Amino acid sequence: MSQTIVIDPVTRIEGHSRITIQLDDRGEVVDAHFHVTQFRGFERITQGRPVHEMPALMARICGICPVSHLIASAKAVDDIMAVEPTPTGADLRRVINLGQIVQSNALSFFHLSSPDLLFGFDADPAVRNIIGVARANPGLAKDGIGLRKWGQQIIEWLGGKRIHPEGIVPGGVAFQLTPEVRDRILAGVPEAIAAVERAIAWYKTDMLRWEEEASTFGNFRSAFMGLVDRQGNVDHYGGWLRVVDADGHFLADKVDPRTFNDYIGEAVEPWSYLKSTYWKPMGYPDGLYRVGPLARLNVAERTGTPRADEELEKFRWRVGRIASSSFHYHYARLIDTLHAIEKIEQILRGPDILSHHVRSVAGINRNEGIGVSEAPRGTLMHHYKVDDNGLVEWVNLVIATGHNNMAMNRAVLQVARKHVKADRLEEAMLNRVEAVIRCYDPCLSCSTHALGQMALRVQLLAPGGAVLDELAR
Amino acid sequence: MTRPAAAGDAPVVGALGALGAGIPPVGVLVVGYGNSLRTDDGVGPAVAARLAADSRLGGVDVRAMHQLTPELAFDASGVSLLVLVDASADLPAGEVAVFRPDGGSVSGEVMTHHVDPSGIVALARELWGAAPEVVIVSIGVSSLDVGDQLSPEVQGAVPRAIEAVVALVEERGHA
Description:
The complex is a heterodimer of chains A (473) and B (175).
Chain A lengths: L2 E7 L7 E7 L5 E8 L5 H4 L8 H5 L7 H16 L5 H33 L10 H7 L1 H22 L8 E2 L2 E2 L5 H28 L4 H5 L7 E6 L11 E5 L5 E6 L8 E4 L8 E4 L9 E2 L2 H7 L6 H14 L9 H20 L19 E8 L2 E9 L5 E7 L1 H4 L1 H15 L7 H13 L4 H4 L8 E7 L4 E6 L1
Parallel strand pairs in A: 1-16, 2-15, 6-11
Antiparallel strand pairs in A: 1-15, 2-3, 4-5, 6-7, 7-8, 9-10, 12-13, 13-14, 15-16
Chain B lengths: L27 E6 L9 H10 L8 E5 L6 H5 L4 E8 L7 E4 L17 H12 L4 E8 L11 H20 L4
Parallel strand pairs in B: 1-2, 1-3, 3-5
Antiparallel strand pairs in B: 4-5
Helix pairs in contact in B: 1-4
C-alpha cells in the first residue's frame, strides 16, 4: 500500500501552505506536493478601479515587498500611458527597488535561514530561531537588523512611507531627491557593505560543512530566468529577459519583458492556489525554471559592481558557472545584497540624481500595459487591461513564487526521497523539507494574492489518500 | 515636490552596535499594525494615523505598519514603553481592551516574515540589553473581509482606542 506524508504548515515562510509526501507500496517516496491553501483574489478585487490607483493598491498586497509590486505596477501603467519615466525618475525608482532588495534579502538570510545554518538542521527548533541566533551570534543578528533598517529607511525617505510607500507613481516618482537625503543614505553605505561582507565571510567558512547537504538539497538541472542589462549585468529594474538552460546556454536572450506572454505559460493544479509558470517552448511540466537571487547570478555575465563581482567569481569557482543546488540561494542572496548596496551608491552619485524632472505626465494612451521588474524573490510581472476611461478591466500578476513553484515541488521531492524512509515523520525530515522551501523564500501572500500571514503542515499519505502521519508547527 | 526629512532620520546601520551601552531607555513608541485592505484588520493603522496628528502625543514616535518585523526590536530597545494597537478576533466587535502580555518565553518557530510582540521584546533584550514594557490595545473586529473601510462598530471604537493610548502615554508623563 502506498502512503503519503503531509507537512502543514511550513514555518518561517510567508503564507499558508501544506506539504504532502506520497509513499508507494514499498514505503518509498514517489511524489511530493507543496500546496498553497490560501486564496486572495487580488486580481479580481482591483477590477473597476482607476488604473492610476493601481501602484498604491498593489503595494498593499504584502507588508514585506510592497516596493516590488509598486515598481512593476507603475511600469505597467507607464506602458498604458505610453510614456517612459524621466531618467532621474527611473533612477530613483531603481534606488527604492534596491533598498527593497536589501531589506527583504536580509530578512530571508539573517532571520529565517541563518538559524538553520548556525545551529544545523537537526538542532532543537526551540533554539533554532532568530532569538537563538541573537544569543549565539549577536553580531550576525545585529547585522541583519541593521541591513533591514537601512533598506527600510531608503524606502521611507524616497518613497514617503516605509511599509506602503506612495512615492512611486505612474511616469516616475512623486518626490525630488534632496541633497540631505542623498547624503544620509550614502553615509550608511560603508557600514551596510561591511555588514553584508561579514555575513559572506561567515557563510563561506560555514558552507564547507554543508557541501554534502547541498548536493541533495533541491539540486537538479533546470533553466533559470532573470533580467539583464545591455551588457549582460544583473538588472533589478529593467533591461531584457534572459533564460539559460542548466548548462548556461541561452534559451532566450534580449527578450522584451512586455512580450513575456509569448514565452511563459501558467498551469493550474487542483491541489494548490499557487499557479505553476513554465517556459512555453518546453511545455508543461518540462519547462521548469527558477528565478530569484540564484537565477539572477546564473543568467548574468556579471553583477556590474566591483565588490559583488569579486564575490561572484569566488562563488562560481566554488559552485560552478551554473549553480544547480537550491542551497546556493543563500550564498547568492548575500551577493545579490552586496550588489544592491553598491548599485545604490553608484546611482546616488550620478550627476542628475537631484534633478527636479522626476515624473512624466500623460493620460490613457493604450488599453493594455505590462510592467516587469526583479523582486527579491525573482521576476515579477504585472499585466493590466483598461477601458478608455482608465478603469481596470483585467489584471494578471505573475509572481516569483509562481515561477519557482515547480522547482519547489521538485526540491521537496528530492529532500523527501533522501530523508523519508518509513511510514512516520521525523524531525530531521521535517526540518529539511521546510528548509529547502525557505531557500526560495516564498511569499505566499503575494503568490496566492492572499490576505494576511500564514504558517505550514506535513502529511504522510497512503496510496488511497489516508493520512498515515502528520506534523505541524 | 521634495519630501521633508522625517523625525529620527539618521544613518542607522553604523549606530546599531552603540545603542544600549548604558543609556537608560526613555520615551514611548506607538505602533498600530494590520492589513488596511482587510476591513477591520486595518484598525491599528487607522488609530495610528489619527494619533500621529493628535497634539496630545507631541514628541511621541507613532507608526502605522502592515506587520511587526524584526528591526522594530532596535527601536523598541530605545524606549521605556511600547504600545501596540492591533485588531482582535477574540474580543466582541468594537470592544477595546488594554492588556500587558505576560512576557513569557518566546518560540522563534512561530516566526515567518513577521514577528510577534514577545519576539520584539526578546530580540531587543538579547541584542541591546534593553526591552520596553509592552502594552497592547486591542480592538474587537466585526469583519476581516476584503475592503478598505472599517465596519461601523470598529469605526466607533477608534476614538476609545485613541483615548486608551493617550492615557497610557500620559501615565508615563510624556504628553
